[in-house]
Amino acid sequence: MSGGILEALRVVEVSAFIAAPVGGMTLAQLGAEVIRIDPIGGNIDYRRWPLAPSGSSIYWASLNRGKRSVALALNTPEGQEIARALIARPDSPDQTGGILLTNLPAAGWMSHEALSRHRADLIMLRLTGNHDGSGAVDYTVNCASGFPIATGRDAAPVNHVLPAWDIAAGLYLTTGLLAAERARRKDGQGREVTLALSDVMLASVGNLGYLADVQVNGTVRPPMGNDLYGALGRDFMTRDGRSVMIVAISNRQWRAIGKATGLTEKFAMIGPMMEVDLDTEGGRFQARGAIFALLEHWCAGRSLAEIAAAFAGSGVLWGPYQDFGQLLAEDPRCSEANPMFGRIDQPGIGNILAPAGPLGFTGQARLPPRPAPMLGQDTDEVLAEMLGLSAAAIGKLHDAGTVAGPASFETIQAR
Amino acid sequence: MSGGILEALRVVEVSAFIAAPVGGMTLAQLGAEVIRIDPIGGNIDYRRWPLAPSGSSIYWASLNRGKRSVALALNTPEGQEIARALIARPDSPDQTGGILLTNLPAAGWMSHEALSRHRADLIMLRLTGNHDGSGAVDYTVNCASGFPIATGRDAAPVNHVLPAWDIAAGLYLTTGLLAAERARRKDGQGREVTLALSDVMLASVGNLGYLADVQVNGTVRPPMGNDLYGALGRDFMTRDGRSVMIVAISNRQWRAIGKATGLTEKFAMIGPMMEVDLDTEGGRFQARGAIFALLEHWCAGRSLAEIAAAFAGSGVLWGPYQDFGQLLAEDPRCSEANPMFGRIDQPGIGNILAPAGPLGFTGQARLPPRPAPMLGQDTDEVLAEMLGLSAAAIGKLHDAGTVAGPASFETIQAR
């Protein structure tokens, strides 16, 4: 028993890449038992870069922590039957299941209709690319979103590196899953819950006001580099070649910048000069060029350490830019000083610092980070526990090539 | 009764800006009753740009659709008492409440400890900037994440325009809320659920393998423009000055590109030339320069319409780049042809196309998009319904300035 808040909830995940795996991992980090079923040899994401020197995928291992792994010959009726039995297994007194999470094409044996014949109250979460079922991935959704054209200094598209739509989709899936499970406890009904990755994008573009802005004002917001739209903020270079982001949304934050930099009096000259009210967000946005000129000069004369010292305890909203290495090396939030982090022994990768889930619940210890399984690591145990198969029966399934046990990446390569 | 899957769940939101409002709106889109409480005159986000010609905030209206709005003098003991009564109201036979969602500093009367004295099983979701309670916003979290330095063509930081951390945080909050409410139905316990915006970022950087990559390989991934890392993909200019994203992750997608463009034979020369296996993701990534050279030439000779025609039904994973205006004007997914969209009459803004929530549930009609309330629109109704106050009692609260009714932005400006 895990002790997490979703203890006694069981979810089967048949997935690849980011969105559904993030959803499953989020549930596992809350204490649910998440069983990821993969084809023998791994799914299409199993060798995704970056790789560790051993050849193991750092990508796969990072997106599947805390899950159990079962490897089945999903291209055979026998393998499909075992998958179906795991998905549709009746609840036990101490565990609620009957939930499938997938972002793979869910046709044939894995359709909601087919699986529902084996468990009428099945909840199935299904992520597709587009709402009509056609394919799309984060990259092809993002290009359509408007954000790459609004990013950077000119109209040339700049793709985000963070797969933001996949992450949001993963968390919409966990939300939808818990909502459907809540409803099932009231009405006993199973449900298929559908989500399209491009709808996640479209909903977010709408939620942030971009669609209404075009409709009402007829304007498309131009790219403006790192300037914060409608308020005050930008990146500034420091004397030692680093960059900092400085932001003011509230008047309090705005005044804090003046006080901490000693620029209050000079800032006060800008209002009359630019004919705006600097005590409003819009006014500061309109006069940002003049404000930035003063802040550029101030930052360029100081090192990152000096700026950090000047801003400490000042109420200024700011932060240093860091690359991934600096994040790990320099940011105390990215270390065991932050209770979200711990060390794990990740097979094929080594002993590393890794995050647990970010949600904390009072009266409930946060589950520490757990490693990802090796592919097929839990096959035998899950078949015995959940389907009551004997060691002899499991042995026969191995001999027939219907299931596979733990395999390191090297073993699979050598086959 | 809304008919959504979270019907009969009630959440009080005391919030500003993006993260908690996205969380509350997501719940409202699933049928929960979400009551947003604001100070009279609006919270700090009430005038946020972009604005409609009327002065109404398009930003606020887009992030608070489908909620009810109550305006209270939150800086007075009387206003706080009403807020507390709404938050801590006992459940009725047909509605479960006792849930507060906030991303504001939750001290004093709004602390979990103080509110729990009025309802012992209170669930309170609290988003902070950092795990130690210090402040941070999407911009100051993002700069630290490593992504701005990995974005674009060189090491100069490029901020994302999409507030991705806020969106993810909003959806972690809905996940945590439903998990805590699930546990409460089992054990009757209230809980404070905490989430730090920077932990959302740190967890995601870890989940995507960046932290492990630095630890294991000692390398920091350099910015590589719009090239897809570890697979094949990039933007290409068309003859008519548009751009398209073309991606291949699977071998099937890779072969589809060759077939649709007629470049299969030329692609076949690249493997021996670059000494890589083009039937692997890594091989295509290593040889991407040569592959891109052929695709650049192919795209530059064709219009966007010609490329769309060549790729239709081909299995090629691609998409056009669109700005926000083109998204609305040209993309059929962003129209009423997509069942997620509908038209709403938004006070102060007009009749506009707006998205509903992206999750669909079989056997449950998707709730259509609903407008955001005017500030204080539901004050009187909520006080009467939830607290049983008479019209006379509510009138006295208005006279005393403790509550306020519906106010358009113009009314508030004129005060």
Oligomer: homodimer
Radius of gyration of chain A: 26 Å
Tell me the β content of chain A: 15-25%
Structural class of chain A, please?
alpha/beta
Give a topology summary:
Two copies of one chain form a homodimer.
Chain A: E1 10-14, H1 19-29, E2 33-39, H2 58-63, E3 68-72, H3 77-88, E4 99-102, H4 112-116, E5 123-128, H5 138-142, H6 147-150, H7 164-187, E6 191-196, H8 197-207, H9 210-217, E7 232-237, E8 243-248, H10 251-261, H11 264-274, H12 281-286, H13 288-300, H14 304-311, E9 317-320, H15 324-330, E10 341-346, E11 350-355, E12 360-361, H16 379-387, H17 391-399, E13 403-404, H18 409-414
Parallel strand pairs in A: 1-2, 1-4, 2-3, 4-5, 5-6
Antiparallel strand pairs in A: 3-13, 7-8, 8-9, 10-11
Helix pairs in contact in A: 1-7, 7-8
Q: What tags apply to this protein structure?
A:
415 residues, three-stranded antiparallel beta sheet, 18 helices, elongated, Rossmann fold, seven-stranded mixed beta sheet, homodimer, 40% helix, alpha/beta
